[in-house]
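Might you be able to consider the sequence and fold that I enclose below?
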Amino acid sequence: MRTESFSEGERVSASYESEAEETEEARETKGTEEGEQAEEAHRPVRKRIATVAEARKGEFVTGLEEFASSLDDFSDVLGKRGHESQQRIASGAAEGIRNAAGILRKRSASEVIEDLSESVKAHPGVILGGAFALGFLGVRLLRS
């Protein structure tokens, strides 16, 4: 009698395990299908963004180079006023912006967007911190 109830318990347990595996497989399949649908829905949007970004890239790069030049001028003014530490910051920012403009000029907008996306996913804290610091620096420079 005990072996029969034990066998019945094993059958019930096996049945639950089988149902759980089927449910997990269904979730994984559904998740994969939803991910593919989302990717397919985003594809035209990404393509449009890349097209617009590529069309505007030249203007943006020129604007960055002009901004870097303005920062260099501002850096010179800071140096003349005896603010060496702020001068180094402004000069370093101008150099960084010039480097970014050079990278943007050499690469396609799609490549840049892909790299930015990967960087944000890999290091969200660093990106947010950098954006905050850049905004703070911009406000400081505009106020002085």
